[in-house]
Amino acid sequence: MRSAKRRSGTQDERVYAHIFDAILEQRLAPATKLSEEALGAIFGVSRTVIRRALSRLGHEGVVLLRPNRGAVVASPTADEARQIFHARRMIERAITELACERASAAQIAELRQCVAEEHACFARGDRGTGIRLSGEFHLKLAEVAGNVPLIGFLRSLISQSSLIIALYEKRNQAHCSDEEHLRLIDALEARDVDTAVGLMMRHMDSVDDKLDFEEGAPSDDLQAVFSHLLPSARKA
Q: In this protein, which residues make up the domain named HTH gntR-type (predicted)?
């Protein structure tokens, strides 16, 4: 599910996609206040459109909608983080089993292309986009599995996982998920369910091992986070 495709829908779908990407790329900090007025000015849309986008993000658990106090980016506690990753393990296992049975040659090729793009981003130092593409790899795998409810569950869990990593990941961690993803694709192509599931669980273990429950510090400046969407940036 590529970002460009998600941005081609209605105004609120486009706003949703940009905020979702900012969370996946860890450019938008947990606990950041999401001012309807500021976001409306940034995206050039009404507050009604912003509310619809925030409502969808709230339903997915990545934004908290506080009555009379406005919306903020979610900030999972350590206990909530453990529960989210436990749920993700269960979903990823089911998705991997189904994908191993159903993956076509064309879908295998798409997964490899996704990993190649992910690797290229990390190689040139574009960590934020690389992190987003890593999450999109898992969403693409869910599409291969062909179970619509699982796709919805995983989408929410991946965005929440990104917030958890932004908050709790140990500093100066090497990113190696692209290699882990490639080994997983090889197992899918071989229809080796046991190996594929084992690789996915070890992949999740490697993410867990990088967490120490100390806060990270992505930006909470909405103008900075979405600066590439402002008129001056589009003209550049």
A: 9-76
